[in-house]
Amino acid sequence: MRNCGRGGRGLRSVLLLVACLHVHHVAQAAPHRAARGEAALPVGRPLGRRHTDSGSVTRVAAADTAAAAVAAASARLGAKDCTTRYITQDLDHFSWESPSPGNVTSFAQRYMVHDAFWHAGGPIFFYTGNEADVELYANNTGLMWENAEEFGALVVFAEHRYYGHSQPFGTYTTGGDDAKWDPAKLRFLTHEQALADYAVLIYHLRTAFKGGAGAASPVVAFGGSYGGMLAAWLRLKYPGSVIGAVAASAPVLAFPGMSPTFDAETYWGVVTRDASDAIAGCDRLVRRAFTTLFAASAVELTHAFRLCTPLQQLGTGTANRGTQEPGTRTVESGGTHPELGRGESDPEDAKSRLAMFLAVAFDTMAMGSYPYPSNYMTGGGDAPKLPPWPITAACRAMVNAVSSPGDKKVQDHNAAAENAVESMALLEGLRDAAGVFNNASGSAVGQSPPRVSTHATPPTHFTVLPVDPFRRPTRTDRFTPPIHPS
Length: 486
What we know:
By secondary structure, this protein is of the alpha/beta class. Helix content is 38%, strand content 10%.
């Protein structure tokens, strides 16, 4: 196993890692199979059908396949099948003396374990938890669960510090904004500290779990998005802890100064392609709907999108412009717009705010494009579930709003875009399409896009909004604007 996990980049690395782990698994499992009277697996045995939850499954249109997916979702392993444990972690892994509020020096980190398939020396599948309650990942990480039984793996989901139940400061989530965003507390919330947490936990699993039965167990890190970055960095920073990492959708190169240069617009091309593959003509309808949005009046938009607050009040009428960068409007709390009276609003900023609200819905549905009902993207727990293939459901809503039984095919509607009736239909279709996510419960009668904050809060991607890309896109392979992280 010494050379496993060092075979190059991208898919080649993953395949080599899985192949090495498979050989190790066959060798380790042979005595156990023999003891049970089972035939040994040949080393060249196919690994079987693999897929991730969100994009690698071949789409099959048959209704019975969709029903089977729903049934499979209810039977999938998850947090309910795990044992919850805690380990004491240092608040600061890198300083001898590190004063903190309340003189806190340690905290209880939660992790979840499933050992029904595991045997001594078997591999450990270790999920590097990211920015949410760890149960969310335990319930929605298919790759680990789908391979655990065959590999005889111990499945572990580690919770990221400051999330879920792994709170270093008891008042962090209950002390209001001032306590929640106290820099003296947040300075221990770094990926370096989180990686050290995981290295400590892996050492504990190998040396103390079940009497040290995992001392010889190879550990593979798994993660997605930020968790994928952590998985990759764990392999780089602590190569003695893991033999390799499966880093899904991990933007490890998405930083200024990296080569190749990070293109923030590329992802929107992926989202648009997802829609164009879902229903023919959907991407063109959505693109036209966004164009119509910026040409419509505030009254028309308030009515079409059933806004709880008139659109005129969503912009910067009660906020300063602040420092304005090219192509953005910066929203800050306090003050009055220099060109508008108090209570009024910058209509262009209000439209941009609404458009971003809608665009983020498409962004989120593309990220959570599961083939079965899932509430991963809506927060897990008791949150409402998105339908299978949510982008397809969104496109269906878009098409249904614009088309009627007597209409021609969707592709023939381009000439009627300037018609007032169809313009309203496009806006309502965009509302219903984004509503697959924004109104996942189906119970909301109105929508409330984010407004200018009345108090100081940490910036989010809603506080710095792109302006020009909505009307004059620099690319033609996307229908929604790029999100510019603040």
